[in-house]
Amino acid sequence: MEAFGLLLHGFAxxxxxxxxxxxxxxxxxxxxVGVLPGLGGPNGVAILLPxxxxxxxxxxxxxxSCIYWGALFGGAITSILFNxxxxxxxxxxxxxxxxxxxxxxxxxxLTAAFTSSFIGSLVAVLLITFLAPMISSFAxxxxxxxxxxxxxLTFCSFVGLGREAKHKxxxxxxxxxxxxxxxxxxxxxxxxxxxxxxxxxxxxxxxVAVIGLxxxxxxxxxxxxxxxxxxxAASISLRVVLSVWxxxxxxxxxxxxSSFIGCWLGITPGGAIAASFMGYNLAKRFSKDPESFGKGRxxxxxxxxxxxxxxxxxxxxxxxxxxxxGSGTAAILLGGLMVWGLNPGPLLFVEHKDFVWGLxxxxxxxxxxxxxxxxxxxxxxxxxxxxxxxxVAPMIVVSCAIGAYAIQNAMFDIxxxxxxxxxxxxxxxxxxxxxxFTLALVLGNRAEDAFRLSMIGSGGDLKVFWSNGLVGSITTxxxxxxxxxxxxxxLGRVGWTQRTRAxxx
Amino acid sequence: MTANLIWQLMSxxxxxxxxxxxxxxxxxxxSVVSSGTIEIFVCILLLALAATLGYDNWRSGxxxxxxxxxxxxxxxxxxxxxxxxxxxxxxxxxxxxxxAAETFVTRAQARRxxxxxxxxxxxxxxxxxxxxxxASFLLIASFMRAIGKIALWKSLLTAFVFTAIMFVTFDIAxxxxxxxxxxxxxxxx
Lengths: 505, 189
Description:
The structure holds 2 protein chains of 2 kinds.
Chain A: H1 2-14, H2 17-35, H3 41-48, H4 57-82, H5 91-102, H6 106-139, H7 144-161, H8 166-180, E1 183-184, E2 191-192, H9 206-224, E3 229-232, H10 238-247, H11 252-267, H12 272-286, H13 299-314, H14 316-322, H15 328-339, H16 348-351, H17 353-383, H18 389-408, H19 411-429, H20 435-458, H21 469-482, H22 484-494, H23 498-504
Antiparallel strand pairs in A: 1-2
Helix pairs in contact in A: 1-17, 2-3, 2-4, 2-17, 3-4, 3-9, 3-15, 4-5, 4-6, 4-15, 4-17, 5-6, 5-13, 6-10, 6-11, 6-13, 6-14, 6-17, 7-8, 7-20, 7-21, 8-20, 9-18, 9-19, 11-12, 11-13, 12-13, 15-20, 18-19
Chain B: H1 2-11, E1 16-19, E2 31-34, H2 35-59, E3 64-65, E4 68-69, H3 73-97, E5 103-106, H4 107-130, H5 132-146, H6 152-173, H7 182-186
Helix pairs in contact in B: 2-3, 4-5, 5-6
């Protein structure tokens, strides 16, 4: 019940004209970047981050998270109307969404997508409201070994559970951790890996890297493809909205199941894509009539959208409670926290109550406002696609450069951004995942500090990571996850996992 | 004017939305380089990077002293992991290379990517000498004209309006100061 009181306080923080206006601006910008080809959640947040540098942290995070909700909503528009998934987790939405649009039921599909996004996020936000304070107060007892064990768990689960080739995830992660270490060593004050360059003294800023990796590289990738598109225009009338909503109770099992899958997978890193496919596949599997999926069935829109948004939102739970982002976008928001001078981690709930509860309240409010906004303005946003990419591309480049420069007022950072753009382009094309890189870059210093502090505390004995039940079980779990593919293979040989594997396909 | 524009957009909604791409890359363009070759190249680069960083960390101390791990300890072992990963990647790519090659980029695609990359590179250079806003105007106007084949007056107008909005938003409203050049100096900024 304490959470409820604090949440009300959060709403009180939010309900000023200034914050509400920022929220609207954030949502509109978010839908805008979500609809534009070649941009999406993490890119949009990364590019627009500099706008918030001079704001107070609460307004800034409210605006940024609204950009994120907006981008999530926007992704559904292009998936359904144009069969172009803006993000990997929108792919499953196109399976039934686009056929619906072709049958002239675009308005219905869009309403279903927006509504289920709203429901998915709502369930995840409820989870955050009640679970995050508990986890963070539990985590307040953590010492350096426990924190290092949790970081290790995050990194290991990326390697063990990721879909990419394992060595590529390892490369991406160790490169990120190494680059994070460049510059002044925080414990001893010595310089590392600077090779005498005064520009490298500051270290490689996480946000500069992200703007290059996601913004610039995405422009390069988008240009590679044929940008001509053909799709259906749609406007949503109140009648359609009401008729879809009237049928909602019929699909409560699908919605609940997808929300649950989303929340569960969202907390583990990189889960949104898996969640959307799993939500879709399970809905199909449990349906009485699985053949009709893929031909324009409304459940085929409900299931993946609910799961994707539940997981996108749930990814913020570990970020808020432990300071560990569950997705690329959460990592960027975490980078933002540091720019505004907040120290992410469990202390956030104690030291910055206004900020945390303002953010959580903004998730509720942002989703409601976002839902109304997209339902009423879809035609305008769909028309954004008429703007030629040749006009949009250079504007995005300029925005990226402004963002990169603004972080530390350094021209060198603009060059660094360009370099990371090329790296991101090449990595994406040869299948080296960028999410572990981003995560490693933002967590690198804190992981190293935690490791060194625990080592200093124990006098260099690695047994400190098994010194009590809590840290021991986290470390063991981390190592189990790291070797999960091997273990899974062994169990499979015995015949254990055959069944689970069949269901997940 | 805005209301009019919105009305225009709304009234078009019954139509299909069709956007053409005048300079689209051809579908059957020949491959310039295969993914496998690039993978080998990247792995060699990463291996070299791992060796350089590993050496630097070893130099600054990668063992233990009386207070605990030395500064290079953590990154030294990371370099080792990066080196191991890239070596594995190199071998895997070399083995896979003998089989059918997947295209990394076709010639038409490469031309298009260069059509964005080169202007972006020039934009960074111009920013260094003439300031960000002049560079931004030049980039947008020339890109729209040359790549998008959009009418000159539209390109110039869009570039000017966008740059002006950025200037007002960042330098004036939000106090985020961007690099400036001789033009801004002439106006006293």
